[in-house]
Design goal:
The chain is an alpha/beta fold and about 300 residues long. It is about 45% helix and about 20% strand. Strands 1, 2, 3, 4, 5, 6, 7, 8, 9 and 10 form a ten-stranded mixed β-sheet that branches. Helix 3 runs parallel beside helix 4, helix 6 packs across helix 12 and helix 8 crosses helix 11.
């Protein structure tokens, strides 16, 4: 299977590294230093107390790329329009671009460019940290689930490709519950780790931090219930803390963004909870406060005391 990973940051690089063991994988990312390093030295991945280098092609554009059956979209939300343009150029007419992005709204933005028949939803709990150009660390081997639509055949083929590459995966006909389940977990982890400057595990090990996780998650659950979403989490707070423990050494994607002064995905994670809460009449003051704090953190990056 020919696969393009559009967005070779931490997550995309980890997935691309593993899939390249069995499939023709190309990484597409605008970061030239990262792309050049991969092309010259290979992609280095640290995982399971070992480190390996794998050779696979990387590029910054769709120029001269052959059509692919599947594209995995792993960019940050702000880069979705760019990813949609790349996917529109390289995904075959009967192929599918699966978004594995955080938050809500990315599939709809992709579909506006590619059409609903070429866009699929996926949910992943893989933990990954980008250590340096060309070097990534897997911090959690969580499962990835693909929607049965728009192509059941391709969904199973991609899930099989993941499993053959030592990445747990499956297919679901009820992705809405999984999308919201991941959104709720991200709501409790990402912003707080970014603000506290801690790896995921600290949220589950420090009572004061755990209290904040509970406040964020409980608001998100109330919004999901009001929206009529069955989230599939028997105890959302406990399961969020379990994810934090399972990815204890991982730096969340939002923490990584804040540390390098990049825009975060606050608007599609906690911000999505706030917007849905407003639409449904569910108060979300704590998530609104987290949004305000992250937005202020982004705005004051040049002034930060070190």
């Amino acid at each position: 299977m020919k696969i393009a990973i559009i967005g070779a940051g931490a997550l995309g690089s980890v997935i691309g590294f593993h899939l390249a063991a069995n499939h023709a994988v190309t990484l597409v990312d605008p970061w030239e230093e990262h792309v050049n390093t991969i092309n010259e030295y290979g992609l280095r991945c640290s995982f399971d107390d070992q480190e390996q280098v794998r050779l696979l092609p990387a590029t910054t554009s769709a120029d001269n790329l052959e059509p692919v059956e599947v594209a995995l979209i792993t960019v940050k939300a702000a880069q979705t329009p760019w990813a949609a343009e790349i996917a529109a150029q390289i995904v075959q007419p009967n192929g599918v671009a699966y978004t594995l992005q955080n938050g809500l709204g990315n599939a709809e933005r992709l579909a506006s460019r590619l059409g609903t028949q070429r866009v699929g939803q996926g949910v992943t709990t893989i933990g990954a940290t980008l250590l340096a150009p060309g070097h990534v660390r897997m911090a959690g081997r969580g499962p990835t689930t693909f929607a049965a639509t728009p192509s059941l055949q391709l969904a199973y083929a991609v899930a099989d490709a993941f499993r053959a590459s030592s990445l747990p995966a499956g297919v679901s006909t009820d992705l809405a519950s999984l999308v919201w389940g991941k959104l709720i977990v991200n709501t409790g982890i990402n912003a707080l780790t970014a603000l506290l400057r801690v790896p995921n595990g600290a949220l589950a090990n420090i009572p004061a931090a755990e209290k904040l996780v509970r406040r964020a998650v409980e608001e998100a659950v109330a919004v999901a219930c009001a929206a009529g979403i069955t989230i599939g989490l028997s105890d959302p707070v406990a399961e969020t803390l379990a994810v934090a423990r399972a990815t204890a050494t991982n730096r969340s994607s939002m923490l990584q963004d804040v540390l390098r002064g990049a825009p975060t995905e606050i608007d599609t994670i906690n911000g999505a909870i706030v917007r849905e809460g407003q639409r449904l009449g569910v108060p979300t003051p704590f998530n609104a406060f987290l949004c305000d704090l992250i937005t202020a953190l982004e705005a004051t990056t040049p002034l930060r005391v070190k």
